[in-house]
Design a protein that fits this description.
Length: about 900
């Protein structure tokens, strides 16, 4: 009996658009109606925005800040000062001598000297002209001479920011990884920040937290073959961590969470956290981070170690591996160099890996494989000191808010104020101003507990939360931290604080508040030096903290009531300070930084004038559009709609101005990317369609300095699409297809009414078709996908799908070639034709489409479509697909190789 030929298993790419198509966000929450009156605007309390400030800190240079501060350099002949802060460089003669010594030491093979030379050229100090390309040469030399962690970290930053090199997030990550493995806590922190921002792949707060915990505390690293603990491709396993220390008569145990995963043969990365680590212990696990590299397993164990509790006895770290879920091997484990220990509970485990952290942490750490047999030695582990204040601060931010990953990534970091405070305290005690400020906010908000009173610099058995908030604000304010100036000012303005740092009564707290707001609002004293009129005439925004500028506007606003219980002197001074022009000046400064409360107040003040010029109305309406775009308050929307109706044709110009609005930068430093956006906006105002599209795309992708804003992207695409721009038509179709940024659809139900952003396949198809008719291959491909998939209110039609796939394929789209092949393969919308399917699969495969390559491999394996059975060709195309990470391709390669060996 003749055996039937196996059917190929083509990958179904009809319903899966290619990866380069922008991923759309989860839908926004429904916008509910509010009954707030339009003229009611409460004075904001201390906002949580103070706490985050700039969110996670910027990438850290080895000098801890971007500027080149005082450093000491070991160059083999002793410690040499590299000079003071910027503007205080050493005398040229000293600088020349230093440069000569460093060059000589570098030439003789000293990596540290090469690194310091790079720092000199990067900062332009010690008589050296700033030369970033020369700096990069020295950084690379430092890496060649000794894998210098600081040099590798700095190269990562330069690639991340595109300074002196072409920006590449993936290359930045490679350098950060190398530096981190060489012991750079800053590189670990920078890796964490990249994962948190999602700049090198998907955003993943679990991976960010894992890296930040290692940098913020200390960490132990191990590396050994995966086969040592029985890990095999495709076999699920669980792992968990435990620390054990013989602190007294009884050993103390501490467990992490456990995690079940499967190693598919691709890169493996999984962290597990200990939610109950004790910050008072000498060394307690915070995270066990497990990853694969080739056939090796890398394990990093993060430790919360303040260094204040002396480590008098070794700490044993044990990582358990379970392959079958049965307690069948490690029933009793012998810790090397210690008596047999039996933990309080033991996971079902086949293997365990033990590493011993001794009192002398500089020595290599002995590691052992534990199983049913005697312990076997493993390659030694290494201890790395972290204690990076920036990472501690960033961890505090993550735990203050809690962070949830996207559904496709999974996992979350739960909000935990106590854990946030733990990390803030560590950073604050190192002088980190942001952490000091944030501790003040925790106290002010009442979310700081007394769990860590033992670590307070001011030890009070029952602290007053406002006094504690003021204490930490003052610590940060003393370092010039703008958020702390504003927070401290708010305590004085509201009367919650009435004394100075020496606990002396302040006669006029409101005046003190104004002084502090001014420090934050105008740190460079631009207004004090030039005057408000000159600043207005320049059109430039004053670098400063927006919320402080808003509070200054509020203090000067004649329509804002005075605080109660003021002294007669204070009341008189504050009445004299009321000035409408000055209030509008500061509101405008905060508005330029996209601070919504100021934008709303400024708009209302402009519209309340006796006479409103067209330019003033345009400005007011622009601010109202910006506020309403990010507000769920229906009263704001009603006010905008009313004013837009009154403005007539002017409303369209105001809408465009709002969409082209670019918030003022945090500082006055020039930026090439910002200059590009400003140039595009200027061209867009004159109707340049390409510029309008480019700005829309930048808003859609969140390209710096713009924040991701799908609604703005939608409106800009719509303008350009109506002018016939095919790329905008395609992007507009994509937004309708996902429901991101599109206008709200009003829905009524039994429970009331909601405004929702929903996908609209009909509108998506309309814009895709416009673009496709204009020769846009990807639009034709996506239109084919819409018809092939079908959905609610959009009928599936394989015949139309085939037509659009054919058009896209003729335009060179590889995915469409694959999908057209699939339709011929299955006889969907076309007459079944395996020869035609084979031809289209082959075209797609030769164009580099991984799905088509796997489908072509299936055809060669089965000898379908006139291809003739050819296992060598099948293996070739399966390997090409596997090299691109195509799901199922690895298994296909293994199966074909097995057949070839027979």
């Amino acid at each position: 009996m003749m055996q039937r030929k196996p059917r190929p298993q083509p990958r179904r790419h009809l319903l899966k658009p290619p990866g380069r198509h922008p991923t759309m966000p989860a839908r926004k929450r429904p916008r509910k109606r509010s009954n707030s009156p339009s003229n009611q605007l409460q004075r904001p309390t201390v906002p949580w925005a103070f706490l985050l400030g700039q969110a996670l800190g910027r990438a850290e240079y080895p000098s801890s800040v971007a500027r080149f501060n005082t450093l000491l350099v070991l160059i083999g002949i002793g410690w040499v000062s590299l000079g003071q802060a910027l503007g205080q460089a050493p005398a040229s003669s000293d600088g020349a001598a230093l440069l000569k010594r460093l060059e000589a030491a570098s030439a003789s093979g000293n990596a540290e000297s090469a690194f310091r030379l790079g720092e000199l050229y990067r900062a332009g100090q010690a008589g050296v002209t700033h030369d970033i390309r020369r700096a990069i040469q020295y950084y690379r030399q430092a890496v060649r001479l000794g894998n210098h962690p600081g040099a590798m970290n700095t190269l990562g930053i330069l690639y991340e920011q595109g300074v002196g090199v072409t920006a590449s997030q993936s290359t930045a990550v490679e350098w950060y990884e190398k530096a981190a493995r060489a012991g750079s806590a800053m590189a670990r922190a920078n890796l964490g920040k990249i994962h948190a921002r999602g700049e090198a792949g998907g955003q993943d707060y679990r991976l960010a937290t894992a890296e930040l915990k290692k940098a913020a505390g200390d960490w132990v690293s191990l590396r050994f073959p995966m086969s040592a603990v029985g890990l095999k491709r495709g076999v699920p396993f669980s792992f968990a961590g435990m620390s054990l220390i013989q602190a007294g008569a009884e050993p103390e145990y501490d467990w992490t969470a456990s995690r079940k995963i499967k190693w598919t043969g691709q890169s493996l990365r999984r962290p597990v956290f200990d939610p109950n680590y004790d910050s008072a212990k000498a060394a307690d696990i915070t995270v066990v981070d497990l990853r694969s590299e080739g056939d090796d397993l890398l394990i990093d164990i993060g430790i919360f170690d303040t260094g204040k509790v002396p480590l008098t006895k070794p700490v044993q770290f044990v990582i358990f591996f379970d392959l079958d879920g049965r307690a069948n091997a490690v029933s009793l484990f012998q810790l090397s160099g210690a008596p047999a220990q039996k933990p309080e509970k033991l996971p079902n485990a086949d293997y365990a890996v033990q590493v011993v952290l001794g009192v002398d942490r500089a020595k290599p750490l002995p590691a052992f494989l534990l199983s049913a047999t005697a312990p076997q030695p493993l390659p030694e582990g290494r201890f790395f000191r972290g204690n990076n204040a920036g990472a501690q601060h960033d961890l505090g931010i993550i735990y203050t808010y809690g962070k949830k990953n996207a559904p496709e990534v999974g996992g979350e970091i739960n909000q935990n104020y106590q854990t946030a405070a733990d990390w803030y305290f560590r950073a604050a005690e190192q002088g980190h101003a942001g952490a000091q400020n944030n501790l003040g906010v925790l106290y002010f908000k009442g979310t700081q507990t007394r769990r860590d009173q033992r670590r307070l610099l001011k030890r009070d058995p029952d602290p007053n939360p406002i006094e504690q908030a003021a204490y930490w604000y003052r610590m940060a304010s003393g370092q010039g931290y703008a958020d702390a100036h504003a927070n401290l000012g708010f305590l004085y303005e509201t009367g919650l604080l009435t004394t100075d740092i020496l606990d002396r009564k302040i006669p006029n707290p409101m005046i003190k508040a104004r002084e502090l707001y001014l420090k934050a609002a105008d740190p460079g004293e631009v207004v004090a030096t030039q005057g408000e009129s000159a600043v207005n005439a320049s059109g430039e925004a004053v670098p400063g903290l927006a919320v402080a500028q808003h509070h200054l506007g509020s203090l000067h606003d004649p329509d804002e009531p005075l605080a109660k219980d003021l002294s007669s002197q204070a009341e008189q001074q504050l009445r004299q300070a009321k000035n409408a022009d000055r209030a509008e000046f500061w509101y405008r400064q905060a508005s330029a930084r996209d601070y919504a409360p100021s934008q709303l107040r400024l708009a209302k003040r402009i519209l309340a004038r006796n006479e409103v010029s067209p330019d003033a109305r345009l400005e007011a309406l622009k601010w109202l559009y910006l506020v309403a775009d990010n507000s769920e308050d229906e009263s704001v929307h009603d006010l905008r709609d009313h004013e837009a109706k009154q403005a007539g044709a002017l409303a369209e110009s105001a809408r465009l101005e709002a969409d082209l609005f670019l918030a003022a930068p945090e500082n006055s430093e020039p930026s090439d990317q910002r200059a590009k956006v400003e140039r595009l906006a200027k061209q867009a105002r004159f109707g340049d369609v390409k510029s309008i599209y480019e700005l829309g795309h930048m808003f859609q992708m969140g390209t710096a300095p713009l924040k991701q804003d799908y609604a703005r992207a939608y409106r800009l695409y719509l303008r350009a699409a109506k002018e016939g721009n095919t790329e905008s038509q395609f992007r507009l179709g994509s937004l309708y297809n996902s429901g991101a940024g599109v206008p709200y659809s009003f829905r009524r139900g039994l429970g009331g009414s909601l405004s929702l952003q929903l996908p609209d396949r009909t509108e998506a198809a309309k814009w895709y078709e416009m673009a496709a008719e204009g020769g846009h291959a990807e639009a034709a491909y996506y239109l084919g996908n819409l018809y092939a998939e079908g959905s609610f209110k959009f009928k599936r039609d394989f015949r139309k799908a085939a037509d659009w796939f054919r058009k896209a394929a003729n335009l060179g789209h590889a995915g469409a070639m694959n999908n057209l092949g699939y339709l011929y393969d299955e006889g969907l919308g076309v007459k079944q034709d395996r020869k035609a399917a084979f031809a289209h699969y082959k075209k797609g495969a030769e164009a580099g489409h991984a799905g088509a390559q796997l489908n072509l491999s299936a055809y060669y394996s089965a000898g379908l479509g006139g291809a003739g059975k050819d296992l060598n060709q099948a293996l070739l195309w399966a390997e090409k697909a596997a090299a691109q990470g195509e799901p199922g391709a690895g298994e296909k390669v293994a199966a074909i190789r097995h057949l070839l060996r027979k």
